[in-house]
From TrEMBL, chain A:
This is Altronate hydrolase. The lineage of its organism: Bacteria, Pseudomonadati, Pseudomonadota, Alphaproteobacteria, Parvularculales. PANTHER family: ALTRONATE DEHYDRATASE (PTHR30536:SF5), ALTRONATE/GALACTARATE DEHYDRATASE (PTHR30536). InterPro entries: GD_AH_C, GD_AH_second, UxaA_altronate/galactarate_dh. The keyword Lyase applies. It comes from the Bacteria. The keyword Hydrolase applies. Pfam families: GD_AH_C, GD_AH_second.
TrEMBL record, chain B:
Residues 27-98 form the SAF domain. GO terms for biological process: D-galacturonate catabolic process. This is SAF domain-containing protein. Gene3D superfamilies: 2.30.130.110. InterPro entries: SAF (IPR013974), SAF_UxaA/GarD (IPR044144), UxaA_altronate/galactarate_dh (IPR052172). It holds the Pfam family SAF. Keywords: Lyase. It comes from Amphiplicatus metriothermophilus. GO terms for molecular function: lyase activity.
Length: 398, 112
């Protein structure tokens, strides 16, 4: 595998220039810059809110200095709350080229778009680099399920679990998430924790998720899940949980925290404190963005009903659980795990196929959603407390 | 409700037992690999019976007679409780199984 070496020692599997709007009012200009640049490695990200939010600031910093990112153009309207200078300083300190465009000071839409396109060209040149050798123990891989049905927990999810076990055996860091979709799994999950104290933190995180979703009146369960044969949130949870494989759980992290080493990590995406800004994650891409902010180089996305999304910054590998869905949406899928149901492949064989695809993707091969230009991105308001020392027992001991 | 509910796989044959998956030895539900129609042959734990009703592909059917209030087990873990008695072979879904955590919502409800 080849990776782009960054100043902090991490390596990226892509060399993306991000164009980041810092308020919705700058979204159109930023999008026009990306569209005009017409380059698969120029991605649009951003935060729409005009009010300040520590979580959003931390996320934008982690994303603009993600190992897959080679440089950043920040697009500001000018009067929003977002601290653009602090973000620019953080990106600069990470050793990446960064430019800031303030629309109110750049002559409005037309002039700002033209200046932005030029800035992206300069950033591309400044970020140009030859990839260096990269090994599996430098890789961070996330997983998510979206549009789940009853096949997800039988085919694609356990196949990803097999792949996770292989990656972890080779020293990679793997992250699974959404405690709100792990209701009912807390006891068995806690038993897999590296220490009893970490197990207790995991139990508490799932309890928090249940309280949060209960207050909002809905579980993380879409009508399509029921149409696909799933009846309850705990049934969906058990199927989703299969993505985590069988390795011990090394830690519990929150969005923006980086795994301190190889192993399996649970990402707690449910905000701390009383419900304040609405649903923990309004759609799948909000979770993918949080996996990326934790350093995920790529995301393994399993789907039964058939999702077509990709992501900005890090490639998404689509693993289709349902053979009927695969026949309808083959052009959007990287792996047909539905073969397991029809007797065409074993779980181990599909797990191995995903593992090989992870290595190929990390070596530069485009995933299907990436080649189609899918670069979905959502970032909204949240609030988190820092994790406690019991959440990363190995790091605390070292 | 969905097209998958009525669609029959071309290879399904009435004289062959429907393909069912048991995920864990402790489970009291089975998974239909292909859609099951009333009268289809089911073989559950060695005993043959005629399917009492439609079960769409991927959905659950009762492995044993279930009592109202009985925990339903899949993957060896409880996934909720039966809200009424369910006969062996019958479809187990939102009409007779309820979450022990947060109730399942449908498309007709909204957050307001």
């Amino acid at each position: 595998m080849k990776g782009y070496l960054r100043q902090d020692g991490r390596k990226g599997i892509r060399n993306v220039i991000v164009v980041a709007y810092l308020v919705e009012c700058a979204h159109h200009v930023a999008r026009a810059i990306v569209t005009r640049s017409d380059d698969l490695d120029v991605h649009l990200i951003g935060f729409p809110g005009c009010f300040p939010n520590k979580y959003a600031a931390r996320m934008m910093e982690a994303l603009c200095a993600h190992p897959n990112v080679g440089g950043a153009l920040l697009v500001s309207l000018g009067c929003e709350s977002f601290n653009r200078s602090a973000l620019a300083r953080a990106v600069e300190a990470s050793g990446r080229p960064v430019e800031t465009l303030v629309i109110q000071e750049s002559g409005g839409t037309v002039a700002s778009v033209a200046a932005g396109v030029e800035a992206v060209r300069r950033l591309k040149r400044a970020a140009a680099a030859e990839p260096a050798e990269m090994s599996l123990d430098e890789l961070v891989v996330g997983t998510i399920c979206g549009g789940s049905d009853a096949t997800s927990g039988i085919t694609a999810n356990p196949a990803v679990g097999r792949c996770f076990d292989m990656l972890i055996a080779n020293g990679a860091a793997c992250i699974f998430e959404e405690t709100g979709e792990l209701l009912g799994c807390e006891r068995i999950m806690a038993e897999r924790a590296a220490t009893p104290e970490l197990g207790e933190e995991i139990r508490r995180a799932v309890e928090k998720a249940e309280r949060y979703y209960r207050a909002l009146g809905f579980s993380s369960f879409a009508p399509g899940n029921a149409e696909g044969g799933l009846t309850t949130i705990e049934e969906k949870s058990m199927g989703a949980y299969a993505k985590s494989g069988a390795s011990p759980i090394s830690g519990l992290i929150k969005p923006g925290d980086r795994p301190p080493g190889g192993g399996l990590y649970l990402l707690d995406v449910v905000p701390d404190g009383e419900p304040r800004f609405g649903f923990p994650n309004i759609a799948d891409n909000a979770e993918i963005v949080e996996l990326i902010a934790c350093g995920a180089h790529l995301t393994l996305f399993t789907t039964g009903r058939g999702s077509v999304v990709g992501s900005a910054i890090s490639p998404v590998v689509k693993i289709c659980a349902n053979p009927d869905t695969y026949r309808k949406l083959a052009g959007d899928m990287d792996v047909n795990a539905g073969r397991i149901l029809e007797g065409g492949a074993s779980l181990d064989a599909v797990g191995e196929e995903i593992f090989e695809l992870v290595k190929a993707t990390a070596s530069g091969r485009r995933t299907v959603s990436e080649a189609l230009g899918h670069q979905e991105f959502i970032l909204t308001y949240k609030r988190f407390e820092p994790i406690g020392p019991a959440c990363l027992p190995r790091a605390a001991a070292g | 409700m969905t097209e998958a509910k009525t669609r029959r796989a071309p290879e399904a044959r009435a004289d062959e037992p429907a393909r069912l998956i048991l995920l864990d030895a402790a489970d009291n539900v089975l998974i239909a690999v292909r859609a099951v129609a009333p009268g289809d042959l089911l073989v559950i734990d060695g005993a043959a019976l005629a399917a009492p009703e439609n079960v769409p592909a991927g959905h659950k059917l009762a492995r044993t007679d279930l009592r109202a209030g009985e925990k339903v087990l899949k993957y060896g873990a409880p996934i909720g409780a039966a809200t009424r008695a369910v006969a062996r072979g019958a479809h187990v879904h939102t009409h007779n199984l309820r979450s022990d955590y947060i109730a399942t919502h449908s498309r007709e409800e909204d957050a307001t």
